[in-house]
Sequence to fold (783 residues):
Amino acid sequence: MQDLRYGCRQLRNSPVFTLTALISLGLGIGASVTMFSAFRAVFLRSLPYRDADRLVDIEKIGDHGYTPGNTIADLEFFRRYAHSFQSAASYGYFRTVTLSGIPDPADLWVRDVSAELFPLLGAKPLIGRTFLASDLHSDAPQTAVLAYSTWQKYFHGDPGIIGHTIFLNEQSYIVIGIMPQGFDFPRMGTAAWLADRNPVTDPQKTYGGIVARMRDGVSLDQAREEVNRLTPALLQKYPPADRHFRLKLYDVATQEIEDYRTAFLVLLAATGFLVLLACLNVASLLFARASVRRDEFSIRGALGAGRARLMGQVLTESLMLAGLGGVLGIALAYAGNRILLTLLPPYLRIPRLEQTHLDFEVLGFAVLLTFVVALAFGIFPALELSSARFSVSRRHSRTSTWRNGAVSILEIAATLILFAGSILMIRAFVRLVNVDPGFRTAHILTAGVPPGHASRLSRPQQAQRYEELLRVAQSVPGVEQAALTSYLPLGRVRVQLQIDLPDRAATHYQVDFHAVSANYFSVMGIPLLRGRLFSQTNPNADKGAAVVSRALADKFWPGIDPIGRHLANGLTVIGVVGDTRHGSLSGEPVPEFYEDYEQYLGPAVGTTLVLRTFGAPRSVALSLRQAIHRFDPEQVVENENTMQATVEQSIAAPRFYTILLGVFAVIALVLTLIGVYGVASYGTSLRTREFGIRMALGAEREQLIRMVLRQGLRRAIVGLIAGAIGAWMLARFMAGLVYGIPVRDPVSLAIAAGILLAGALVAYYMPARRSTKVDPATVLREE
Fold:
């Protein structure tokens, strides 16, 4: 208690030191705790499955981008022969349905699942129940299990919905259960699960996903080895043309988040650098105070205080300082989490990131981090002060100067590593933003039109309905031109179809596919490179016609005119158009082909209206919705968005990483400059008498300032060299996070080094200028 009271007095009597140390510690600990809580929410939080690490997803991987689907025959094969699996179940591919009977009909993504799925996952509903075998009988009422988000959004969390009827595509379903928050198997965005009652007529033609639970004691590698051993036997059950695939097992617990791991580890490392800088800052301040307090500790030692007693006093003060910094850091982390969740774009679909919050585990991490930080910056000043004696030698002064210089060098080196990474991310992001997507983005409005009850219409009726929708959209005031497409570039949906080439061996290719109206290319500004486009006046003339992208033509017919070439699917190439980016702006254009929407009235996700407007695109959104509702009051219109916003949303993840790393880099720069300024200020204060004597002997003030700047420049250059080596060695961890720029980019390193060097010289100049204002006469009188 005596040490605590004395430590409080020491901190209270040194407000500048205390405030500087607390700000440094608070920023370092706060950023680390914020990032750790986000990392924990995404990667460490337990999934709503029983023993989630025992679950695997089984997929087929084909040649040439062809990805055949799993079949019921595969499921039965695994159940019979794969002894690594305790059980296996199937689930359907996503499809969209229209939820009606509510004030504003909505489009939902649903999955048809087997009765074994939920027991296999070990997932229990929040209320109600999951499917029973009886729910799959054709004569039983249709049933649905809702996701927690669907229950909250459309039914306001009313538990009375259990047992009540809802309408999906105008068919009645009884709600039997609500799954807990966070359960969204197999992908984010799943709104409901329906009992799979589709009859299996051909097990080798009935497709779906397969999830399996491994037996206790079986590792993922062992399961993969067994599946690879069984694959040849499975291939023999298919015709020769369908045997071009292999099987791959994915860990369900990490499948959705694996793509984000590298970025989050880089951000965690960045906050680690902030903690290091905070420790170095506080350590330099403590060393400076130690020089002032050497006489105090020498006297206490002479009066009988043992070394352990003196070290305890210094460590107590360090723990108090770290504790206050930890409290400030937790407060900043709480604010940081709130800001993170507030500013988090809804379209940034990183799984479970929205669950970031401070809980007991995160607070435990904060307490541990505070304790480690206290020891890190307190142990060396404690060792030095506890060994203090009355004789204060010139050697100690030199040691102090060398030590403070070493701290500055370490700070500059660590900051350069973080700052260079941030500059690299910024330059790469700027380059990514300027990538040409291959289509027009200005004055383009898009709107999703799910099929709803229209999915039950015949093909001629569907074609007529789409024509009427197109006319309705075209008649909206402010619309210059309207078109239809099955899905948007850079959107959430991607459709691929299997194609075969007559002039090649029996090989399947998986190619991106679009069903579009004839004027789609004109509206989107996709140029025609060769041949012709679909006819706008005679759609029947384009039966069996296809328009291909340049990437597809170059891949399959390099150096050959593709016009008139055939796809084995019964399609003939009539034109070649420019490439567009679909998966992401950072990816290269992929082969794709287009078919007139009247010839192909899939896929199940409905269609998307693409409108070119005279003015601001969003100004016609309300009029479009009203016009379509007048045409069909039950027709859902959703996701009205501009094409420019769609492009921006496609780069939300790299923007998020760049902003966070940039914020951490700015904090690191501020901490470093504070630390360098503190060391420089302390060093020049010890030389005040020297400067006074030099000026009395004829030295100019500018000469003294240049002398201090030369010393600072030497330290800064050593720190920059060390940091450049570190940045060069650690650059490989940035692979996959930057686009269009090598991770070992000398330009980014030079920019970061230049900014840091300029800041360091300013930090050395300010105390040097102040110290050289001393009056030489006053110094000589004191001597």
